[in-house]
Specification:
With 513 residues, the chain is α/β, with parallel strands linked by helices. The protein has 17 helices and 9 strands. Strands 1, 2, 3, 4, 5, 6, 7, 8 and 9 form a 9-stranded mixed β-sheet that branches.
């Protein structure tokens, strides 16, 4: 069972505070460590790892962030609707002891609800139930203490904690034990790469190209089939593309990454079927240009799509632009023709271009802007995993993936091997990259939808509101994943969440006039 981490989205830091949002979280979530003595001195309130990080940082503007607020009303994943923005901002910022107390109360409440549910179903509550809540909170405290020890480069203390964590974080345990096992792997990898005290930074592994294995392939396919995240992105993207292509004869899709290299081209099969059967007549030609570093894989998918286009009697052309990085893209790579309606599709891809500075992503977006797309569909994880400090990212990721593993609990039985494959070969890979890597090797740099709005606006794009909330909710009922998933409209974007915890966001853009 996942602990009830709560996020409120009532307000965000301003544009000037973007680059230090992660720092604010880092300070608030580790501000009063139960493993340290509490002192009246301001400096003594912070763990040494935080102080070391902040001393080496330039002056920054501390802005309260919605990411830091914790709902203490006992709900597992609240919707953040209780109280106004002003009332939230006027409250004192919760300290670390408040977080631990809140998590403890929620964990005990959830255990009580489970016991009641078992009693209603005629089940028996075992004697180990009383021990379960204590073990769960001990696991939370050990995880955070280990993260702090790793941040402090205290290898001795971190190693001893990792030994205990490996015994308690079980791959087939509760949802929180399972997510903890992934974070343990990440912490272990990071500890092996840290430099000795007195040096700066982490010895990150060399940046690697995307490697596909049979396990990862299977895990990605299972995520697509079982979890709604990718299907949600495809549904919203295709609806926006069909609207942009209405009445157009020559249509061109530029696909960045082809949804992580998902086999069979599911998104484009659906689009091709819709185009072939649209009112009036189908387009005289559909061209799909895929950008990525796996040309053989993309070509194989392209051959499948060509065969499907033949069945639909659709004039279809498939092109692969091989690039190891989107940063090397040029507008001339796409051979855009006169009279061609072009759209750009990016599903879970652009966050890999985000770096410590804004320059890399902004450069890519500006080159894409030169293509003058009718629409630019952007689907990304809606969470802040790109903060400047390790402890902040760790806490953000722990909240986010706890919700995902909680949803997997509701969708698949405890000992289902499909769930283990999804968790260990897909989500665990993301977690380990966020936790253990730095520099160019850290590519899972997820950001909140508000941050993407600022980035897209700076690159010359303006939002196109997605006005299909009812259709999206009907789609969610149709796919019948399980109860608990929600779809909300937020400032023209659609956000898929689990128990109101944002998971993935879809937005649509066009070139500013």
């Amino acid at each position: 069972m996942a602990l009830g981490f709560q996020w409120s989205r009532g307000f965000h830091s301003d544009d000037k505070g973007d680059e230090v949002a992660g720092l604010d979280l880092n300070l608030s979530t580790t501000g009063c460590n139960p493993f340290f003595n509490v002192s009246t001195s301001d400096n003594d309130l912070w763990p040494r790892s935080v102080l070391d990080e902040t001393r080496s940082c330039k002056k920054f503007k501390k802005t309260p962030s919605a990411d830091e607020s914790v709902d203490v009303n006992g709900s597992l994943y609240g919707d953040g609707s209780n109280g106004s923005t002003n009332s939230l901002s006027s409250l004192p910022r919760p300290q670390f002891r408040d977080h631990i107390w809140t998590y403890t109360q929620r964990y005990l409440a959830i255990e009580a609800m489970e016991e009641a549910a078992l009693a209603m179903m005629g089940g028996e509550v075992t004697e180990t139930k009383e021990e379960g809540s204590g073990d769960g909170m001990k696991l939370v405290q050990q995880l955070i203490a280990c993260a702090e020890a790793v941040a402090c480069r205290d290898k001795t203390h971190a190693s001893s904690l990792l030994l205990e964590l490996r015994a308690n974080a079980l791959v087939f345990g509760t949802s929180f034990q399972r997510v903890a096992s992934c974070f343990v792997q990440g912490l272990s990898d990071r500890l092996a790469l840290v430099q000795p005290l007195g040096t700066v930074g982490v010895l990150g592994p060399a940046s690697e190209t995307m490697a596909f294995t049979s396990e990862k392939d299977e895990a990605l396919s299972l995520v697509y089939e079982i979890c709604p995240q990718i299907q949600f992105g495809h549904f919203v993207a295709n609806a926006s593309i069909l609207e942009a292509f209405e009445g157009e004869s020559l249509v061109h899709v530029v696909d960045l990454g082809m949804t992580l290299g998902l086999p069979h081209g599911h998104q484009w099969r659906s689009l091709m079927h819709s185009l072939a059967n649209r009112k009036g007549k189908p387009p005289s030609r559909l061209r799909i240009t895929v950008v990525g570093n796996c040309p053989e894989r993309f070509e194989a998918i392209g051959e499948e799509l060509k065969q499907y286009a033949g069945i639909l009697k659709l004039n279809f052309k498939f092109v692969v632009v091989e690039r190891s990085s989107l940063e090397t893209l040029q507008a001339k790579d796409f051979n855009v023709e006169d009279g061609e309606a072009l759209v750009i599709n990016s599903i879970l891809q652009l966050h890999c271009v985000v770096k410590e500075s804004r320059g890399a992503l902004n450069s890519v977006l500006q080159r894409l802007h030169e293509l003058s797309p009718k629409v630019f569909i952007l689907v990304e994880q809606d969470s802040s995993h790109n903060g400047p400090f390790f402890l902040g990212r760790f806490m953000e990721a722990l909240h986010y993936y706890s919700a995902i593993f909680d949803s997997l609990d509701a969708m698949l039985p405890k000992y289902d091997t499909r769930r283990a494959k999804i968790e260990q070969f897909f989500f665990a890979e993301e977690i380990k990259n966020i936790v253990s890597c730095e520099g160019p090797a850290r590519v899972e740099r997820h950001e909140r939808i508000d941050q993407w709005r600022r980035r897209m606006s700076r690159a010359g794009f303006q939002p196109v509101p997605i006005k299909m909330i009812m259709q999206a909710k009907q789609w969610l009922k149709k796919v019948q994943v399980c109860e608990g998933y929600t779809i909300l409209e937020e400032k023209g974007s659609l956000v898929l969440g689990w128990q109101s915890k944002p998971i993935i966001a879809a937005s649509c853009w066009k070139c500013s006039s």
